[in-house]
Structures
1.
Amino acid sequence: MPRQPVADDVLVRARGLVKTFGEFRAVDGIDVTVHRGEAFGFLGPNGAGKSSTMRMVGAVSPVSGGELRIFGLDPATDGPAIRARLGVVPQADHLDEELTVEENLWIYGRYFGLSGRQVRERARELLDFAQLTERARHKVDSLSGGMKRRLTIARSLINSPEVLLLDEPTTGLDPQARHILWDRLFRLKRQGVTLVLTTHYMDEAEQLCDRLVVMDHGRIVAEGSPRNLISAHSTREVLELRFDLDDHRDRLDDVDGVGERVEVLPDRLLVYVDDGDAAMSAIAGRGIRPLSSLVRRSTLEDVFLHLTGRSLID
C-alpha cells in the first residue's frame, strides 16, 4: 500500500487529547505537535500520563476525547496504515529468547510482509547498526541488558519507520549501555528518523530531545527545548547544601536572601543562584558550615521541581 504523503512537516498533532480509565483521567486534555525530523520527548515521573499518550500515538489505545492525527490520519479508522509507518520500542523488550538474534529480526520482518531476501538484507544492516553482528547467531538469553535493548531498537526499525516511538528506552541500563544507546538514537535522528520518547531521566531528555513537554498528573506544565525550559524556569546554577540534621527547613534562615529561591529536599537545601561560587562565599561569610556543599548547573530536574514541587523520581 503506498504511503500517504503528509501535507506539512507535522507528523503528530494532538488537540485536547484525553485518555480515561473509568473515572481516572490518565491524560487530561493535552496539546502536542511533533515535526518531521525532530526528537520530541515527554518528561515526567511515573504515572504522569506519558505511556498512555504514547499508546494512543502508536494507534493501539483508543482516544477517550479530543483530536489526534498521525501522518494526517485518524487512528480510530486508519490504525493499520499508521502502525505500518511506525517503529515501537516498548518499556519491556519482549524478545523471543529461545531464538537467535537474527531470527528475532527475521520473524518481525515477516510481520510487515518483507520477503525472505528483503528481511535478511535488512537484518544484516540493522545488526551492524546495533553493533550486534558478532552476536547474530547467539541465543537472545545470552545477551546483556544493553544488547537486548539495542536488539529491540533494531527490531523496531525493520520496516524503515518514519517515526520511532520509545517508551523509557534506557530504564534499568548501566551508564555505559545508556550512552551507547544514546549514540545509536542520535545516529537515527541524523538519518532523518523522527524520534518520540518518554523518560523520567533528566539527562536523557537533555541529551536526546530537541523539544519536550513536561507532564504531571496527565497535564502538560511546560514545553520547549531543554535549554529554554531551564532558562525560563530556573537559574544558571544551583548551590546544594547538606547539614547534619533531620529537617533541613531548620536552616532556611541561614540562606535567606542568598539566592532567587530555595527548595527544601529531605536531605539538602537547593539554593538557586546565578553564581554558585559567590553564593558559597556568602554562606561562608555568615559563618555557616554545611556538612557538604556543591555547585552545579541547573537541570530539567530543577524545572520540574519548581513547577510541581516534586522530584521527577519520587
2.
Amino acid sequence: MTNVDGGGVNGGVADLEPLALQKEQKAWYWYDWANSAYVTTVSTVLFAPYIIAIAKEAAVDNRISLLGLSVAPGSLPSYLVTISTIISAIVLPLMGPIADRTANKKRLLATFAWLGALSGSLIFFATGSNWQIGAVGFFLANILLGASLVVNDSILPLISDEENRDRVSSRGWAWGYLGGGLLLAVNLALVTLHDTFGLTEGMAARTSMLSACIWWAAFTLIPYLKLRDHEPVLPPVEGGKQGILAESFGQLGKTLRELPKYPVALNFLLAYLFFNDGIQTVIASASTYGSEELGFGQSVLIGTILLVQFVAFGGALVFGRLAARFGSKHTILGGLVVWMVIVTAALFLPEKGLVPFLLLGVAIGIVLGGTQALARSYFSLLIPRGKEAEYFSFYHAMDRGTSWFGTLVFGLVYQLTDSYRPAIFALIAFFVLGGALLLRVDTAKGIRDAGNDVPAVI
C-alpha cells in the first residue's frame, strides 16, 4: 500500500505520493476561493436589497405572489432562503451516497458549481418588475452551492491524512475569505461609484452579481483540472448489482440504520448545530444591529464587512496553527469562549461608537473562519472511510435544516424587549450549549470507531 503520510522510500523507489497530495491540496483551496465570492457578493450583500427593489416595482398594495402566497416584497429574500434551505436539507443526503460511489468527484464538484453559477447568472436578467427570474436563479444557485460543498468537503479526507487535516481545512477557509473579500471590495466600489463608471445603481449591482457567478465558474476550473480521481470504497449494497442511483439510495438507508454505531460523530453534530447556528445568526444580524441599534450608516457597515473578510483570512490560518499545538477540539472550544465575549460586549457597545464596533468586527473575523474550518476538519476525523460525502451531506443538511433557531430566538427577544441589545446577547445560549456538548465528545474514541488513525495532537 502506498504510504501517504510522509516521504521516504517504498521498495527502493522514492515515494512521490506526498508531493502529489500537496498539489491536490493547493488545487482544492481554489474552490473555497471560487464559491466564497458568490456567497459574499450575492448572498450576503447585494441580492436582498436588489431583489426587494425589483419586487416593489411589481407589487400591488405592497404584495407580490410567491407560490400562490401573498407576501411583502421586503420578505422575499428571507422566504427564498428558507425554502431553498428546507429543500437542501431534504436533497443533500441523497447526493452523499452518489458522490461516495463516484471516483471522479472533481467532475461532480464542477458540475454542481457550474450549474450553480449559471443559475445565479439569471439574476442579471431580473430588471424592471421581473423579479421572478432572479428569484428562480437565486433559489437554484443556493441548492446547487450546497450540493457542491458536500462534494468539496468530502474530498478533504482523500487529500490529507489525519495529522494534516486541520491545516488543510484552515487554509481552504482562509483562501475563501481572501477571494470573497477581494471581489467584494471591487464590486462595492463599482456600486458605490456607479456614476463614475456611467452606470445606474441597478446595473452596477447586476454586473457585480454576474461577476461573482463568472468568478465562481472560472476558478472552479483549477480543482477540476488539478484534482485526481480517487477510487471509492464501495460498501456492499443489499439487493445485488444495481445502477449507481439505486445503489446510492440503498446505501443511504443502510447508513441511516448504522448511524447509532457512531455516537461520537452524532454528538459532535449536535454540538455543531448549536454553536454554528449562533455564529450564523451573529453574522446575519450584525448589519441590522449596527444600523438600527448603533446608528451607523451604510458606508460604515460596508467597511466593517470588508474588515471582517480580510481579518478572517488571517484568523483561519492562526486557528490552524493553534490546532496543531492544542488540538482542534480545544481550539474550537477556545473560539466559542471568544464568541461568548463578543455577544456580551455587543450588549454594551455605545451608540455611534465606531472604534468599539470595529474592534468587535476584528474579533469576529479572528474566530469566524477558524471555528468553521476546524469544525469541518474535526468532523472529518469521525467519518468512516468511504462514506465521506454521506456524512458531510448530513453535516450540511442538518446545518441548513436547523439554521432558523438562532434567527427565531433573535427575533423573539427583540419583539419582547424592543431592543437589539438583549437579542444579540441571547445568542450566548447557543455557544454555551454547543461548547457544553462539545466538551462531552470523546475525540479519540470517535476517531477509532470510524477506523481512522488518531493524530498525535487531538
3.
Amino acid sequence: MNRNPALSDRRRKAAKAAPRPFVKVLAQAIEAHQADDLDTAERLYGQVLDMRMAQPDALHFLGVLSHQRGRSDEAVELIRAALQITPRHPDAHNNLGNIHKECGRLAEAEACYRRALECDPGHYNALGNLAVVLEARERLDDAFEAHTRLLQQAPNHARGHYMLGLFLRNHAQHIEHLEQSAECFRQAIRLDGRNVRALECLGVALYTLGRHDESAAVYREWLQREPDNPVPRHMLASCGAAAAPPRAADDYVRDVFDGFADSFDEQLLNNLGYRAPEVLIGALLEKLPAAAASLDVLDAGCGTGLCAPLIRSQARRLVGVDLSGGMVDKARARGGYDSLEVAELTDWLQRHPDQFDVVLSADTLVYFGELAPVLGAAHGALRPGGWVGFTLEAIEGDEDRAELTSSGRYRHSHRYVERVLHEAGFVDTGIAADSLRKEGGKPVTSWVVCARRSAGQPA
C-alpha cells in the first residue's frame, strides 16, 4: 500500500499553472496523510471532494486511507470511482490491487497489478506485487518469472533482490536455492544498507548453510554500526555467538514486528503456509462449552488479529494484547476485538487476575525461552476452570530443555512444556505435534498445547 501519497510531476505542474481552491487543501491533506495524521487527512480529503466532487486524487488517496482504517469495502469503491475518471492511473490500480491482496482476494489483486503494468510497464511496485500474488496462488514458475523480470528491468532495485531472496528461501528444494537466496540478500544490502530485514535474513541463510562464522560476522558488523539496535544483538545470540537471553528482549520484538506489520499476513499466510490460528482454536473449541458468545477471551500476542474471526463467536468479550503497536494497528483495522492494548504480555497478565475464561496465544511464546513466568501469569489471569492454549516450535526427543534457534525464535521439548505447565498449576494438559508453518521450504514441527486451571483452584 502506498502509505505516502504524492502528486505526480505532471499534476503538480498543472496545479501550479492553474491554481484552484481545492489544490491547496489537497496538498495539505496529502501532507497530513504522509505524517500519519489520518483524522486531519480524512477531513481535508472530504473538503476537497466538497469543492470538487469527482477529484480523482482525493478519491484515490481517501480510498488508501479508508483501507488503513479498516474500511476496505469503502476503499475499493473510492479507488474505483477515481479510476472511472482517470482509467490509466497505474498507482491507483496498484493500490486497488494491494487492498484486494490484503483482503485475500488474490485473483482480483492479480488483475489490478496487470492493469497497472499495462498503463506503465516500468511500474516496479506493481510487478513486485504481482510476483507476490502469483506466489500466494502457488503459481511458482510464474512468480519466479515476475521476480526475475523485475530485476532484469531494474537491476538496482534493492527490494526486488530482497523479495527474490525470500522467494528462493521459502521454496528451496536444493541447497543451491539457499545459496542463491543468500546472494540476493547480499545484493539487497549493497543497494540499500538500511534494509535490516535483508541483514537478518542473510545471517539466518548463512547459518542454515552451515557457515556459522560468516553468520556471526554479519551480526557483529551490524552491531558495530548500530550498537543500540536490539535486532543484531538478539540474532548474535541466536547463532550461538553470545549467551541466549531467557526470552527475546522487548525492544527486539517491538522493532521486528513494527517493521514486519505491513507484510506479516502476506508472508505467513500466503508464502509460509501458516496455520497456527486455525489449528490452535480448533483444539480449544474441542474443550470449550458449546454456548456461543459466553466467554471472556484474551488473545495474548494478538499480532494482526488473525485469531479474532475464528474465536469471536465464542467470546462475550475479546481482548487483544501485543507488544508491537504496528501489529495492534493492523488488528484494529481488521476488527473483531472489544479492546486492544500495546503492552508486554507477562506484566499485563499479572495485572489482570481472574478475568478470563480463555487465554490463547498463537506463535507468541516462541519468543520466550523460559516459559514459567508467562505461564504462571496466564494461570493467574484465568478464572477457575479456564483454558490456556498456545503454540510452540518443537524440540524432538526426551530431554527437558529449551533453546534459541538461528531464526531468533525458541524451541521447547515436550518434557519441558509438560513440566512447566504442571509447576504453574495447570491440569488436563494436552500437547500435540503438528506442522504450523514452513521454513526454508520445509515444515516446522510444532506443539499445539491446551491446559486447564482446575475449578476452585487458587491463583
